[in-house]
Design brief:
Radius of gyration: 24 Å
Structural class: mainly alpha
Number of helices: 7
Strand content: under 5%
Largest sheet: 2 strands, antiparallel
Distance between the termini: 77 Å
Number of strands: 2
Strand order of the largest sheet: 1-2
Length: about 200
Protein backbone atom coordinates (compact mmCIF):
# COMPACT_ATOMS: atom_id res chain seq x y z
CA UNK A 1 0.00 0.00 0.00
CA UNK A 2 1.42 3.37 -0.94
CA UNK A 3 1.08 6.52 1.11
CA UNK A 4 0.68 8.82 -1.87
CA UNK A 5 -2.90 9.73 -2.74
CA UNK A 6 -4.30 8.46 -5.98
CA UNK A 7 -4.47 11.16 -8.57
CA UNK A 8 -7.59 11.15 -10.73
CA UNK A 9 -6.91 10.25 -14.30
CA UNK A 10 -7.70 12.85 -16.90
CA UNK A 11 -10.37 11.86 -19.32
CA UNK A 12 -10.64 13.65 -22.61
CA UNK A 13 -13.97 15.39 -22.94
CA UNK A 14 -16.01 14.51 -25.98
CA UNK A 15 -18.72 16.69 -27.36
CA UNK A 16 -22.25 15.47 -26.85
CA UNK A 17 -23.28 16.31 -30.41
CA UNK A 18 -21.83 14.22 -33.20
CA UNK A 19 -20.40 16.33 -35.97
CA UNK A 20 -22.30 16.34 -39.22
CA UNK A 21 -20.37 15.34 -42.26
CA UNK A 22 -20.62 17.36 -45.44
CA UNK A 23 -22.65 14.58 -47.06
CA UNK A 24 -25.17 14.57 -44.19
CA UNK A 25 -25.62 18.35 -44.41
CA UNK A 26 -26.05 18.15 -48.18
CA UNK A 27 -28.78 15.51 -47.82
CA UNK A 28 -30.64 17.28 -45.01
CA UNK A 29 -33.91 19.12 -45.52
CA UNK A 30 -34.07 22.90 -45.38
CA UNK A 31 -35.11 24.52 -42.08
CA UNK A 32 -38.23 25.92 -43.77
CA UNK A 33 -39.24 22.44 -44.94
CA UNK A 34 -38.67 21.00 -41.46
CA UNK A 35 -40.75 23.77 -39.89
CA UNK A 36 -43.58 23.18 -42.36
CA UNK A 37 -43.48 19.44 -41.64
CA UNK A 38 -43.61 20.09 -37.89
CA UNK A 39 -46.61 22.42 -38.31
CA UNK A 40 -48.41 19.75 -40.33
CA UNK A 41 -47.74 17.15 -37.64
CA UNK A 42 -45.42 15.09 -39.84
CA UNK A 43 -42.49 13.21 -38.44
CA UNK A 44 -38.99 13.51 -39.84
CA UNK A 45 -36.50 10.72 -39.44
CA UNK A 46 -32.82 11.00 -40.27
CA UNK A 47 -30.39 8.11 -40.52
CA UNK A 48 -26.65 8.82 -40.81
CA UNK A 49 -25.55 9.06 -44.42
CA UNK A 50 -29.12 9.03 -45.74
CA UNK A 51 -31.58 11.71 -46.71
CA UNK A 52 -34.13 12.87 -44.16
CA UNK A 53 -37.49 11.23 -44.69
CA UNK A 54 -40.54 13.44 -44.45
CA UNK A 55 -43.83 11.71 -44.82
CA UNK A 56 -45.45 14.31 -47.04
CA UNK A 57 -47.30 12.63 -49.95
CA UNK A 58 -46.04 15.12 -52.52
CA UNK A 59 -42.43 14.59 -51.41
CA UNK A 60 -42.98 10.83 -51.51
CA UNK A 61 -44.24 11.22 -55.08
CA UNK A 62 -40.94 12.87 -55.93
CA UNK A 63 -38.82 10.20 -54.27
CA UNK A 64 -40.75 7.38 -55.94
CA UNK A 65 -40.69 9.22 -59.29
CA UNK A 66 -44.47 9.23 -59.56
CA UNK A 67 -44.42 12.73 -61.08
CA UNK A 68 -42.46 11.54 -64.14
CA UNK A 69 -41.58 7.83 -64.00
CA UNK A 70 -39.22 7.75 -67.01
CA UNK A 71 -37.54 11.15 -66.70
CA UNK A 72 -35.80 12.07 -63.41
CA UNK A 73 -35.15 15.63 -64.56
CA UNK A 74 -38.82 16.23 -65.38
CA UNK A 75 -39.75 14.59 -62.06
CA UNK A 76 -37.58 17.12 -60.21
CA UNK A 77 -38.90 20.04 -62.29
CA UNK A 78 -42.48 19.13 -61.44
CA UNK A 79 -41.60 18.84 -57.76
CA UNK A 80 -39.85 22.23 -57.84
CA UNK A 81 -42.97 23.71 -59.44
CA UNK A 82 -45.04 22.33 -56.56
CA UNK A 83 -42.58 23.76 -54.03
CA UNK A 84 -42.80 27.16 -55.77
CA UNK A 85 -46.60 26.96 -55.53
CA UNK A 86 -46.28 26.23 -51.80
CA UNK A 87 -44.02 29.26 -51.31
CA UNK A 88 -46.39 31.56 -53.21
CA UNK A 89 -49.32 30.22 -51.22
CA UNK A 90 -47.55 30.84 -47.91
CA UNK A 91 -46.64 34.40 -48.99
CA UNK A 92 -50.26 35.12 -49.86
CA UNK A 93 -51.63 34.01 -46.49
CA UNK A 94 -51.32 37.17 -44.41
CA UNK A 95 -53.94 37.78 -41.76
CA UNK A 96 -56.10 40.83 -42.38
CA UNK A 97 -56.09 41.87 -38.71
CA UNK A 98 -52.76 42.43 -37.01
CA UNK A 99 -51.79 44.06 -33.76
CA UNK A 100 -48.92 45.93 -35.43
CA UNK A 101 -48.38 47.38 -38.83
CA UNK A 102 -47.39 44.81 -41.47
CA UNK A 103 -44.57 47.09 -42.57
CA UNK A 104 -42.87 46.64 -39.18
CA UNK A 105 -42.92 42.83 -39.35
CA UNK A 106 -39.41 41.60 -40.06
CA UNK A 107 -37.69 44.96 -39.81
CA UNK A 108 -34.54 44.79 -37.74
CA UNK A 109 -32.61 47.99 -38.23
CA UNK A 110 -32.99 51.64 -38.97
CA UNK A 111 -34.42 52.86 -42.21
CA UNK A 112 -36.86 51.28 -44.61
CA UNK A 113 -36.94 47.55 -45.34
CA UNK A 114 -35.59 46.43 -48.66
CA UNK A 115 -38.16 45.23 -51.15
CA UNK A 116 -41.90 45.68 -51.15
CA UNK A 117 -44.02 46.11 -48.04
CA UNK A 118 -45.44 42.85 -46.67
CA UNK A 119 -48.97 43.79 -47.75
CA UNK A 120 -47.80 44.32 -51.35
CA UNK A 121 -45.98 40.97 -51.33
CA UNK A 122 -49.20 39.30 -50.20
CA UNK A 123 -51.23 41.03 -52.92
CA UNK A 124 -48.76 39.97 -55.62
CA UNK A 125 -48.81 36.41 -54.31
CA UNK A 126 -52.63 36.34 -54.29
CA UNK A 127 -52.68 37.60 -57.88
CA UNK A 128 -50.26 34.83 -58.82
CA UNK A 129 -52.45 32.23 -57.09
CA UNK A 130 -55.49 33.48 -59.06
CA UNK A 131 -53.51 33.33 -62.31
CA UNK A 132 -52.37 29.79 -61.45
CA UNK A 133 -55.95 28.73 -60.81
CA UNK A 134 -57.04 30.14 -64.18
CA UNK A 135 -54.13 28.56 -66.03
CA UNK A 136 -54.59 25.09 -64.56
CA UNK A 137 -58.37 24.98 -64.91
CA UNK A 138 -61.26 23.78 -62.77
CA UNK A 139 -60.54 20.07 -63.29
CA UNK A 140 -56.95 20.09 -61.98
CA UNK A 141 -56.87 23.01 -59.51
CA UNK A 142 -58.69 21.20 -56.65
CA UNK A 143 -56.30 18.26 -57.07
CA UNK A 144 -53.23 20.52 -56.96
CA UNK A 145 -54.43 22.35 -53.88
CA UNK A 146 -55.40 19.14 -52.09
CA UNK A 147 -52.12 17.29 -52.78
CA UNK A 148 -49.54 20.08 -52.81
CA UNK A 149 -50.93 22.65 -50.39
CA UNK A 150 -52.98 20.52 -48.00
CA UNK A 151 -50.74 17.43 -48.01
CA UNK A 152 -53.27 14.81 -49.04
CA UNK A 153 -52.51 11.67 -50.98
CA UNK A 154 -53.80 10.62 -54.38
CA UNK A 155 -56.36 8.29 -52.80
CA UNK A 156 -58.01 11.19 -50.98
CA UNK A 157 -58.56 12.94 -54.33
CA UNK A 158 -60.64 10.21 -55.94
CA UNK A 159 -63.77 12.25 -55.22
CA UNK A 160 -62.63 14.88 -57.74
CA UNK A 161 -63.21 12.38 -60.57
CA UNK A 162 -66.68 10.97 -59.73
CA UNK A 163 -67.27 9.77 -63.28
CA UNK A 164 -64.63 7.04 -62.81
CA UNK A 165 -65.54 4.31 -60.34
CA UNK A 166 -62.55 1.98 -60.65
CA UNK A 167 -60.04 3.01 -57.95
CA UNK A 168 -56.86 2.44 -59.95
CA UNK A 169 -58.27 4.37 -62.93
CA UNK A 170 -59.31 7.24 -60.67
CA UNK A 171 -55.79 7.30 -59.18
CA UNK A 172 -54.32 7.39 -62.69
CA UNK A 173 -56.58 10.28 -63.73
CA UNK A 174 -55.79 12.23 -60.55
CA UNK A 175 -52.05 11.72 -61.06
CA UNK A 176 -52.31 12.73 -64.71
CA UNK A 177 -54.21 15.92 -63.86
CA UNK A 178 -51.57 16.70 -61.22
CA UNK A 179 -48.78 16.27 -63.79
CA UNK A 180 -50.54 18.37 -66.43
CA UNK A 181 -51.30 21.09 -63.88
CA UNK A 182 -47.69 21.22 -62.71
CA UNK A 183 -46.49 21.45 -66.32
CA UNK A 184 -48.88 24.34 -66.95
CA UNK A 185 -47.68 26.23 -63.86
CA UNK A 186 -43.94 25.94 -64.50
CA UNK A 187 -43.59 29.12 -66.55
CA UNK A 188 -45.88 31.16 -64.32
CA UNK A 189 -43.98 30.25 -61.15
CA UNK A 190 -40.54 30.65 -62.72
CA UNK A 191 -39.56 26.97 -62.84
CA UNK A 192 -38.46 26.03 -66.34
CA UNK A 193 -36.24 23.33 -67.78
CA UNK A 194 -33.96 25.81 -69.48
CA UNK A 195 -30.45 26.18 -68.24
CA UNK A 196 -27.41 23.97 -68.07
Amino acid sequence: MSLTPNKPKRVAKTSAKPKKSAADEKLDATPERLARAEEAGQEAEKAPGRARRLLDPFDVMRSTRALAPHDPRLNDLRWLTGEALRRVHSRSALDALRAISTERVGSTGFGPRSGLPASEVALHARDKIRAAEERVGPAAWPILTRIILEGAGVRECRGFVPEIVTPWRADAVVTDRLRVGLDALGGLLGVTGRGK
